[in-house]
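hey so i finally got around to running the thing on that chain from the lab meeting. sorry it took forever, my laptop kept dying and i had to restart like 3 times. anyway pasting the input first so we r on the same page abt which one it is
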Amino acid sequence: MRYADTSEGVFLRRPNRFEAYVLTEKGETLVHVKNTGRCRELLLPGARVVLSESPKPERKTRFDLVAVRKPGLGLVNIDSQAPNKVTEEWLRSGRSCFRDLTLIKPEYSYGDSRFDFYLERGRERILMEVKGCTLEKDGIGYFPDAPTARGTKHLRELAAAAGSGFSCYLAFVIAMPKVKIVLPNKETDPEFAEALSNARSAGVKILLLRCRLSKDRLEIANWEEDR
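ok and heres what got predicted. didnt touch it at all, straight out
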């Protein structure tokens, strides 16, 4: 996926989950933050950030904040819509780990959850949930960066679906350089960590989708099943 009309600025402050003030060449500018998570270790005063100009002139905020440059790590994409977009591109490219797919359907309802993708390959039925990882510590990715009851629910539903004949996957999209693995953030969300362990035991497979990124482009470069 590509971003149009990107520019860089300096992060100043974040008054709420949806907005931030960034110093641009035109002065202090209110922008939309495309991630409602905490991102506390990323959105620090003085951090260099990447902005993408919105094509909608009627919007209150002209720019979207889509990435942050983290010292010692590099560029980190924090656009919460990006993981699903790059995953769908990867699935449709024919170069994913799922060969010969006959159906790719985003947003599929099963049980009490809505999963990111339903796939078919011959008679095989596949459910996939996608999570974007933005939290890094000492070169290791952690998920989530804040407690996620929704994420825990998804894991429990995936485990149930695996017991009903579906092939089930949880895919972590890693949109930051140097990070190769993702671990559950037990300190922040022990319930998610437990649900992940139970899901593995039930047959849910974990995929690590590592991205190649620049300030205006994001794509899945390689993948690995986390065993």
